[in-house]
Design a protein that fits this description.
By secondary structure, the protein is of the alpha/beta class. It has one domain (about 5-275): Rossmann fold, CATH 3.40.50.300. The protein is about 40% helix and about 10% strand. It has 13 helices and six strands. The protein has helices at about 20-30, 45-60, 65-70, 70-75, 85-90, 125-135, 145-155, 165-170, 185-190, 190-200, 210-220, 220-225, 260-275, and strands at about 5-10, 10-15, 35-40, 95-100, 115-120, 180-185. The strands form two sheets. The chain has a four-stranded parallel beta sheet with strand order 4-3-5-6, sandwiched between helices. Strands 1-2 form a two-stranded antiparallel sheet. β1 (about 5-10) and β2 (about 10-15) form a beta hairpin. α2 (about 45-60) packs antiparallel against α11 (about 210-220). The longest helix has 15 residues, at about 260-275. It starts with a strand and ends in a 10-residue tail after the last helix. The structure holds adenosine-3'-5'-diphosphate (A3P).
Length: about 290
């Protein structure tokens, strides 16, 4: 199947699930409610993991919802058209919605609301590796002919949702706002309990220790991999080939070391330093 992209506000989107009309509607007409919570990320940063964590926090650690309802119905994707529109329309307040939109495409009504944003970020080298494998299973991405080719497209922002650098720099404009929480994939891997508690505090939903234990247990890589409602095997075949590939691939920090040559590492580091020099946030991967 051929994958087609279209451009919207300088960003590349896959025609299979996205449309100009939906994006224009979202930006200009979609009404963000004060009690909404948005999970925002660049693709392959740990969004699915965070969907699981948020689903479990909302249910006090009870895994029933996560075992019975696919993740894209628990926390629907704001951005997608077609069936996705219905899921967003039907979700009850307080709404939890997921989005990969860069800040300049996000509903404008966010900026005059009290809605909460949780932004999950991940080291761009690991994002790129995860994206490379994802490109071979998803019909939302053009298949790269080599890792080098995808690296160049990634660094130039010629991939769905645009440049990783612009995405993160855009959203970091909100970093000092009290309705914004930055979480990294690396924070979650290195201190999952502490990070879950931070998220609970941000959501004003403190959990008992036993409930936090349940969130930890049921959002672990192995639990999610076994759960068909969480491992994306419920995603329709025309979007993703989960018969021959695993969405829950490795779930580790630093897999880039198994994919990058020294030359590729130096090249990406030099672009990273150039593009990120003006940002005053220190990331664990810096
Ligand atoms: P890898 O391809 O490196 O394994 P997203 O949901 O934003 O598309 O991100 C997908 C990445 O998150 C994949 O990374 C996937 O394996 C990883 N992931 C999903 N659930 C996870 C979990 N519970 N623990 C660690 N990594 C997880």
């Amino acid at each position: 199947m051929d994958t087609h992209y279209f451009q919207h506000k300088g960003i590349c989107f896959a025609s299979l699930l996205y449309s100009q009309e939906r994006l224009q509607y979202l930006e200009n007409e979609f009404h963000v409610r004060d009690d909404d919570v948005y999970l925002v990320s660049y693709p392959k940063s740990g969004t699915t993991w965070m969907i699981e964590i948020l689903s479990l926090i909302c249910r006090n650690g009870d895994v029933t919802w996560c075992r019975e309802v696919p993740n894209f119905m628990r926390i629907p994707w704001l951005d997608v058209g077609g069936i996705g529109v219905k899921l967003v329309d039907e979700v009850h307040s307080p709404r939890f919605l997921a989005s990969h939109l860069p800040i300049h495409c996000f509903p404008k009504s966010l900026f005059s609301s009290k809605a909460k944003i949780i932004y999950i970020a991940r080291s761009p080298k690991d994002v790129l590796v995860s994206l490379y494998h994802y490109a071979h299973m998803s019909y939302l991405m053009k298949k790269p002919s080599s890792f080098d080719e995808l690296m160049e497209d990634f660094l130039q922002g010629r991939v769905p949702f645009g440049s990783w650098f612009d995405h993160i720099k855009g959203w970091m404009q909100m970093k000092d706002k009290k309705n914004f929480l930055l979480v990294t994939y690396e924070d979650l891997k290195q201190d999952q309990r502490g990070t879950i508690k931070k998220i609970c505090t941000f959501l004003e939903n403190e959990l008992e220790e036993q409930a936090v234990d349940l969130v930890l247990e049921h959002s672990s890589f192995n639990s999610m991999k076994k759960n068909n409602m969480s491992n994306n095997t419920m995603v329709p075949d025309y979007i993703m080939d989960t018969k021959n590939n695993q969405f829950m691939r490795k779930g580790i920090i630093g897999d880039w070391k198994n994919h990058f040559t020294q030359e590729q590492k130096e090249y990406m580091d030099s672009i990273y330093h150039e593009k990120m020099k003006a940002i005053d946030v220190k990331f664990s991967w810096d």
